[in-house]
Write a structure and sequence with these properties.
heterotrimer; A: mainly alpha; three-stranded antiparallel β-sheet; 12 helices; 4 strands; 4% strand; rod-shaped; B: alpha+beta; two-stranded antiparallel ribbon; 9 helices; 6 strands
Chain lengths: 289, 191, 191
């Protein structure tokens, strides 16, 4: 193949799809670059081999390498000159192989894509137009899309970063600081289960089943003891009648009475009458002595 | 080893910003020496000047949410002691779950009140540690309601209003009835 | 079941001290919600009031050694970027560097989320190694948000709040705008 043929073909394909101003801009560098690029190795390749290795490792993949070549040669990405790019790309890939750089399969895939585009550009104009238009279109779209992301990655790298550009302020708590202890939650069922456990273990409750009545009596017993205890400082006794709350009705009176009897039976309180038919007084045993 | 250092001038305003920033980001107290060595190495600044700046910062933070304190190894920002109680909520710790011993003791006090410690021990068959009584008292679920007139006059325990409130009960009567032993053990209940 | 909460009143001055202290001792950004819930729980205070207080604190710290910044998950005190040079010698070296492969993958996930691994590979033109996904996941910058309903049901990736926090952004909208190609090449776009 000759340069002129390819050049004409390329231009022919582009004809009608590109504004003429752009066309003119592109024609001149094409001819010039092709004369250089095709017969010789690309200028880029005059790099010391060890430095080359470093550079090659820097590429993120075939798209990145292609972009590098395009930018380096100041090609227009929208009007991609396939022939010189393919040549340069292949030269790089060969070099990568030569220095036994671990070459990702993607590089070879790209090489075949470039070769295919190149061969399709060589087909007569009509044959090409019957297909989906410019065979380079897909590659150009991919290059553009990749370049946008490449730039976005660089932008993200430049954002202020915690631990690199900004540092978080950290202040110690005062020496007297103690954390708040959150109370443990207890479920009523746990409480019942605990008691069932005790019963099961000891059978201690065998003879006195706890019933509602006895519970309310027990509660009243505790209440009476509290009342006597708080009254203890001042009066040392409480009037028997003061322990009853009439608003509670008959049931309440019965419960209180049972509670007092139970307390007396268990020697937890004493009941005194200092004079015959006098007022009945209730007090804690200590005070009765 | 011998990079030549050209000292730069720094105005008080910038110096104060820098010292303040350094003290806030450092993970340990900073002395005047370490401030100079680690953060101000490029600048022409005297120890005296740094001390002045620290005084200015200390004055600025008086009465704010943090204060600059001098401790043995240098200066560091800390929260004022007055705020500790309010900050405590930020670092809540979950208390460990109550042990079976605590729950059984609480259940016995609730159902068998008033009751002495040794009565609880008799039923449970093991000693009731002071820790258990302390935990329940601190939680305000139990209280003492007097002494039993037996040798040693042991304290009598009962449940509290807070206990009822916590379990959303209006009275002890609302405590669940215990399932009779027979049902628990799976034996036919005697009628 | 709950311990009863009694709300207390708090004056602006005390509130400002508390909020300031909380923001300084917290090891992560605090939102208005979390300030209220974790920390001002005892007080009667509105979200609006907390926001006002935050604005007041932000104004107070303008031009000082640290500033109060809003990031995605809340507010945090951090040193201003202008001071990074001076604070850098001590801390900058510790900051991890990220490869282009990682940054490009991150950029694709941030800008094109939700996105599958093969979509990323398609745009970058190379395979995305598991190492990259692992690093980004471990940093908690990306997370999986479901599966794409195509054969193989590949995982869909999206960015996280931690990602935004780390780069001091409040939302994805604050990411630098994607630059269209024409501007990148600097060549006249076709008419």
């Amino acid at each position: 193949m000759s340069d002129t043929t390819e050049s004409t073909l390329e231009n022919a394909v582009l004809d009608g799809t590109k504004a003429s101003g752009v066309m003119l801009q592109q024609v001149l560098p094409f001819a010039f670059l092709r004369g250089e690029a095709i017969v010789d190795k690309p200028q880029d390749l005059f790099i010391p081999p060890d430095a080359l290795e470093v550079i090659l490792e820097m590429f993120e993949g075939p798209l990145d390498l292609l972009l590098y070549l395009i930018r380096k040669q100041k090609f227009d990405i929208l009007d991609l000159p396939i022939a010189p790019i393919t040549t340069q790309y292949m030269a790089y890939v060969e070099l990568m192989k030569d220095i036994k750089l671990e070459l990702a399969a993607e590089y070879l895939v790209m090489a075949s894509i470039l070769a295919e585009i190149k061969s399709r550009l060589l087909l007569p104009k009509q044959a090409v137009e019957e297909e989906e238009g410019d065979p380079r279109a897909e590659l150009v779209r991919k290059l553009q899309e990749y370049e946008v992301i490449k730039q976005a990655a660089e932008n993200i790298d430049e954002l202020p970063r915690l631990g690199r550009d900004n540092f978080m302020a950290q202040v110690e708590l005062a020496d007297n600081f103690v954390p708040h202890i959150e109370n443990t939650n207890v479920d009523l069922q746990e409480l019942v289960a605990a008691l069932q456990g005790v019963i099961k273990r000891t059978q201690a409750f065998e003879h006195h089943h706890i019933q509602k009545e006895s519970l309310s009596t027990r509660e009243r017993m505790a209440y009476i003891l509290s009342t006597l205890k708080s009254a203890g400082d001042k009066k040392c006794y409480v009037d028997f009648s003061d322990l009853f709350t009439l608003e509670e009705g008959r049931n309440g009176v019965v419960v209180t009475f049972l509670a007092i009897l139970e307390l007396i039976k268990e020697s937890l309180i004493d009941c005194l009458q200092t004079e015959v038919y006098g007022r009945l007084r209730v007090c804690l045993p200590k005070l009765a002595e | 080893m011998n990079d030549r250092i050209r000292f730069k001038d720094i105005d008080d305003d910038k110096l104060q910003r820098l010292v303040e920033a350094a003290l806030f980001v450092a993970d340990k107290p900073l002395s005047v020496q370490s401030l100079k060595r680690d953060f101000l190495i490029e600048y022409r600044v005297s120890n005296l000047k740094i001390r002045d700046i620290i005084l200015a910062i200390q004055a600025h933070y008086k009465g704010r949410g943090v204060e600059l304190n001098k401790v043995a190894s240098g200066y560091r920002f800390q929260t004022p002691t007055e705020l500790s109680e309010d900050l405590a909520h930020l670092y809540k710790e979950k208390a460990p779950k109550y042990s079976r011993a605590i729950l059984e003791t609480l259940a016995l006090i609730a159902y068998k009140q008033p009751i002495t410690r040794s009565e609880i021990e008799d039923i449970r068959g093991v000693a009731v540690s002071s820790h258990i009584i302390k935990t329940l008292t601190e939680r305000a679920w139990i209280k003492t309601v007097g002494h039993k007139e037996v040798p040693g006059r042991p304290v009598l325990y009962a449940s509290t209003q807070e206990f009822l409130d916590y379990f959303s009960l209006t009275s002890l009567e609302q405590l669940p009835e215990l399932v009779p032993m027979a049902e628990l053990t799976g034996e036919p209940s005697k009628v």
